[in-house]
Every structure is written in structure tokens, then in C-alpha cells.
Specification:
With about 325 residues, the chain is of the alpha/beta class. The protein is built from eleven helices and 15 strands.
Length: about 325
């Protein structure tokens, strides 16, 4: 059976957008037909750089095109909700950069809007073959009983003055940007949301620059996470069990100049080193365009938004917050 070609339109022309365009164009069964920006000059520049036939001024103009089946959205987070709902109204499938939206209510609204079409948040690490190995080891009990999770994600880099990560109005701050990964990591390995969270934040320019949190799950599992813009590059985690620990030092995106890797440290002191092949972004795109269900990825995204919602409340209140409070 011949696979149907999925025709993509791209909204946004930033650095992340340009990187994923190459992955889209390298994936079998995908073609990129159009790119849109607020300014025609930027859309035209991006289209010329990547051999995309159509450049469009205005996001809505792209969403109405009949030669587009799906859109990839890499706009500032505050724009995701409106664009996503319009994507659903125009009966297109949606691949959207993380964070999916700026709050839980918007995330849940998007999920409800896509009753006829598909949506997926572009959290690449969930699709890497290495992540399948993580799940396999957990299911086989290779680590013993899981007791504690920890993760850190950061980089130290001055931003240009108009970077959306410095703007409250555009959904800036590390809580949404980097917290999506570290909180999502805890949800992935526990398979459910925590019962309670205590989070604090250091703010600058009105947005979070560093966030630290403690989380409590069922079965006496605990987690600690940290993310920020004021610390050297880190993207590691540890999943500690009664028999061994799983350690990864590049879980969000593999180092470009090193093998994709992880280690299992056994209680005896023995260390198992594992390496993997595969491009997580192309695997993610393949998952998105195939007919398989996206429900488990969507549940992961909604639950991650819920954890961030709880973290936000904890930061605002300055205390531990139980998830039962959020349901009242």
C-alpha cells in the first residue's frame, strides 16, 4: 500500500523552526509546501533557504490553504492556543512546539477541539529509540523498586532583548520553557502525576529564571527537579531504584558530537553503558503522520501541563500544594 504524503505548512521562522524543517523534509511521506511569518520578507527568506515553494504573510492565510494537511507551529508559547484552535477549525493536524500552551485550561481546550484531527506536542525525547529502552527496563524491573527521580536542565546564555523567553506576555520564563521537560520527565517515569509539589522560583524581568521543586508520588516515590537560565548547560536525569540507577546526561536532545547514551549503575558498583542510533525528531514526525494512536503522548502533555499548573500555584502561595486542592 502506498503511503499518503502529508503536506505540511510551517508557522514561524525562528532557529528551532529552521532545524525541524530539515527533519520534516528528510522524513519519508512528508513534504513542506508553505511557510508563514508575520512579515513577508522573513517568510520569503525562510522559504528560499529551505526550498519551500510558497511564502505567506500571516498565519491564518496558511491555515486556510487546501494544499496543507498539517501544520508545525513554532511560535512564542502565548500564541499557541489561538493558532491551535484555528488549526482545528480549518481541519488540519497540529504538531506544536512545547510548551503546548501557557496554562492547563488552554491545553485541555486544545485537546477537546481536535475531535476530528490529530495533535501532538513536539517533545522529541519521548520518541527516541533510547526512550523505548527506558520503558523496557522499567517494565522488566531492571532497576528494582523505583524510589527517587532527579533531573536538571539549564543553560547560561544572555538573551537578545526581544527574545520571547524574557517576555511575560509571550509566555516566557524557564518554568514553561525548561520545566516542560523536567516535570514531564517525572510524569513519564512514574506513569502518573504526583500527589503534591513544592516549587520555588527566582525571577528576573518578570519571568522565572530558575525553578526548583520537590514532588511526591504514590508508593513513596519522590522527585527533585531544577531548571534555569543562569546555570551551565545541564540536561541530565537519574532514576534511582532499589537495585540500580539509570543515568542519562543528555535526555532532552542528544549531544551532537557524542553517541546517544545512558548508563545503569548497579548496586554492586558495576556499570552498564548503552548507546543508541536514531533521530528523535524524525521519529516524532513519523509517529505524528502514521495512523497509530497519539493518546498516550497527548495524556503525557496534558499531565505535564497540570504539573506546571500546580508548580505555578506553589510558587504563588509559597508552600507545598496537593493536587486535590487543584480539583476543588
Amino acid at each position: 500500500m502506498t503511503q499518503k504524503t502529508v503536506r505540511f505548512g510551517v508557522l514561524g521562522t525562528g532557529r528551532i523552526t529552521r532545524r525541524l524543517i530539515a527533519d520534516l523534509q528528510s522524513t519519508d511521506g512528508v513534504e513542506v509546501n508553505a511557510v508563514a511569518s508575520r512579515e513577508m520578507s522573513r517568510a520569503r527568506w525562510c522559504a528560499d533557504q529551505h526550498g519551500i515553494p510558497v511564502a505567506i504573510e500571516g498565519y491564518e492565510n496558511l491555515l486556510k490553504r487546501e494544499d496543507v494537511d498539517a501544520v508545525y507551529v513554532a511560535l512564542p508559547p502565548a500564541l499557541h492556543h489561538t493558532v491551535a484552535l484555528s488549526t482545528a477549525e480549518n481541519q488540519k493536524d497540529l504538531l506544536c512546539e512545547k510548551p503546548l500552551t501557557v496554562n492547563l485550561a488552554q491545553t485541555e481546550e486544545i485537546d477537546k477541539a481536535f475531535s476530528k484531527n490529530r495533535w501532538l506536542d513536539a517533545t522529541g525525547w519521548l520518541h527516541h529509540p533510547r526512550t523505548k529502552a527506558f520503558s523496557s527496563w522499567l517494565n522488566k524491573g531492571s532497576l528494582g523498586t523505583i524510589t527517587h527521580l532527579s533531573a536538571a536542565l539549564s543553560f547560561h546564555q544572555p538573551f537578545v532583548s526581544d527574545d520571547h523567553r524574557l517576555s511575560v506576555e509571550l509566555g516566557g520564563g524557564c518554568l514553561l520553557d525548561l520545566g516542560w521537560y523536567v516535570f514531564g520527565f517525572t510524569r513519564f517515569f512514574c506513569g502518573k502525576n504526583p500527589n503534591a509539589i513544592y516549587a520555588d522560583a527566582i525571577h528576573e524581568c518578570g519571568v522565572s529564571q530558575r525553578v526548583n521543586a520537590m514532588l511526591w508520588f504514590d508508593d513513596q516515590i519522590t522527585a527533585t527537579v531544577s531548571c534555569g537560565y543562569d546555570t551551565a548547560t545541564r540536561k541530565w536525569f537519574e532514576v534511582a531504584g532499589s537495585a540500580a540507577s539509570l543515568i542519562c546526561d543528555d535526555f532532552t536532545r542528544p549531544w551532537h558530537d557524542r553517541p546517544t547514551r545512558c548508563w545503569i549503575h548497579e548496586a554492586s558498583g558495576q556499570v552498564q553503558s548503552h548507546t543508541f542510533e536514531g533521530n528523535q525528531e524524525r521519529k516524532m514526525i513519523e509517529t505524528f503522520i502514521r495512523e497509530q494512536s497519539l493518546e498516550r503522548f497527548q495524556r503525557q502533555a496534558i499531565d505535564t501541563a497540570r504539573i506546571i499548573h500546580a508548580a505555578t500555584k506553589s510558587i504563588e502561595l509559597g508552600r507545598k500544594v496537593s493536587f486535590t486542592e487543584l480539583d476543588k
